[in-house]
Amino acid sequence: MIFPEFHHSRIKVINTDGLSYLDDQDREIYIDFAECRNNWVNYLNASDSYEGDNRSIELTKCVGWRDAFAIPMYIEFFTVPRTRFVYPYSFIEKLRKLNSGRAYAHFKETANLIKRNGWSTFDMG
Length: 125
Known about the structure:
Layout: E1 5-7, E2 11-14, E3 18-22, E4 28-32, H1 33-46, E5 62-67, E6 73-77, E7 83-87, H2 91-96, H3 102-116, E8 120-123
Parallel strand pairs: 1-7, 5-8
Antiparallel strand pairs: 2-3, 3-4, 5-6, 6-7
């Protein structure tokens, strides 16, 4: 399934309630973290891929997942449909096969902002 995907530079604000970004038509779109958390829990409870009892919305603050080892790195929120922000390495970083750099710094900054605002993302990598 293909989900909307945006460059991380489209993110404008991350706060305790959610995230605002600009879509491809430069319209500001809002992602509600409480809604993402509900979708995350529903996904886990319906999935055969994750073991455990039915999860409770009250017991999690997870709003999506992230993968720093994917190419490109991404953070994906459990909107409907899901929304993914990518953190591609620059051409020079790819040539040097760097494991860090600007892309990773932006990736960590976004993940840390989500965490500082009371939410989390599941680490896929």
